[in-house]
Amino acid sequence: MTSVRPAAASASLTDHLRHWARHRPQQRAFSHVDFPESAPAGVHRALGWRALDARARAVADRLVQVASPGERAALVLPQGLDYAAGFLGCLYARVVAVPLFGPQLPGHEGRLAAVLADCEPACLLSDSETARAMGEFIRERGLPEVPVVPVDQLPVQRGGFIDAGEPSGAPEPDDIAYLQYTSGSTRSPAGVMISHANVVANARQAIDAFIADPDAATTVGWLPLFHDMGLVLSIAAPVVGGFPSVLMDPSAFLQDPARWLRLLGSYEGTVSAAPNFAYDYCVARTDPALVDELRLDRVRVLINGSEPVRAGTVDRFHATFAPAGLDPAAHCPAYGLAEATVFVTASSPDEPSSAVACDADALMEGRIEETSDETAAVLVPCGAPVGQELRIVGRDGAVLPQGRVGEIQLRGPNIGRGYWKRAGLTAETFGFGAAGDWLRTGDLGALHDGRLLVTGRLKDVLIVDGRNHYPQDIEETVQTAVALIRRDHLAAFGVPRADDVGEDLIVVAEHRRDTDPTPEDTQNAERVVRAAISARHGLRLGSLLLVPPGSVPRTSSGKVSRAATRTRFLSGGFGPR
Q1: What does each C-alpha distance from 308 to 324, 375, 548 come to in angstroms?
Q2: Rounded to whole angstroms, how far apart are CA atoms 127 and 122?
Q3: Of 12, 409, 8, 6, nearest in space to 176 by CA
Q4: 204-230: per-residue pLDDT in tens?
Q5: Contact between 204 and 170 (Cβ < 8 Å)
Q6: I need a labelling partner for 167 at 20 to 30 A (CA). Which of 108, 140, 150, 366 fits?
Q7: Angle at CA 335, nearest 5°, toward 333 and 341?
């Protein structure tokens, strides 16, 4: 088996795909595991590198007939092998891919319509079943009708694109490969323009951070492929590194997280990723009797990113799955964002990450000071930058030293080319042509012993009497204080007071599915929360609103959207205030 990689520094994803198809034609490349009721262990479908390349070229052969280089093709099909082939086929044809989802994803129909209107696709990549639903969706929403390419029906045959090389010409490194629409947790979704060079650079950064030996690694992923982390870890990095990728549907994980845990133990050197809530979900939903059957000693890396990493979650996950052989060092907190393709910093998989207990008063004033006080704010380091530069900047634009909290700014080959059709926002965020072209992330954090501590979103921070209060810290206090609140299904935010002097703190929280709170339960919960917030944060609670499960808005990637929750609250969407 050859381990030689494409030598050219400018090699694209399709250059790498073509390389592995030539040198490892029969080796398993991508697999998809489905979980029908008749096969609880899952049904595996796999493609070798030559077959994957042929499928991608078949997509490209059709695309060049309906779209020109630089036009967009929206991927609106289920998670699986067709999705991977469709994405790679776009790159072959030099058509800009727009990773999306079908209209079957509940609660996100409005986002899908908005993104389709924004990216103005020349065609849609779908499958036979989703194509019918997309036709109805397009007509109901009054969107322009464009050709629908059913990826699952395309013939893989000799001739055309497969034999003719790349009739549209090889992509340039700075050409746009795809639009990664942001999850929209603090604003309406915007399409980040990711170039061919960006995605390859970030794939290499991920490999450098997490994969010691690409010839002995397998990624296992349930994250949506329309999400930045899912796309890079489950498609881009395996194609660049030449190692296998195993896919499963997000709904299969949510129905039974043990499916993911079993797959993690089915391969040596497994690498996977999930947001923080998923690790708590595994603890809550996994039968203790199953733990002894798992082979988690085979897991190399479990990336924890996409939302604030909580020390308690890491501890609970380790305690639950240590009997299955899970190495504590395998849990790797990380930080990233779509504007940087995805990966930015990562903890080393060679040593366990230790939490930092920060003095709460100092943190509110923008300083990191370690303490042993029981009221400490506990932060989990997200490691060091990987193949890029990172700095912390104050409100006055000055670069801050270690231990000071400010905005996280980035520079590197993985930073996107800006926002699609949003020149003003691009100039404001990406800084093109100003101050060295540093990306403004909008996230707050500090460097501590060379590692990044993420403290919150700049737009989410509550400033009371000149002191910063981070909503995720308040949310942790609330869900710890009241047992009937669903973990990680709540949002804390500020709203203008009636007298327009300052803001009131509001917490909207879902109650657990197995509870039906009475008015007395609600009053008791608010009393407990009010006392806990006062004691821990020195803040006065305006009100606690308990809502049914599923009421708190979430982004398409599963994160709570505080901005949308605040908007719904102010408009009376949760009922009388």
Answers
A1: 26, 19, 24
A2: 17
A3: 12
A4: 999 999 998 999 999 999 999 999 999
A5: no
A6: 150
A7: 135
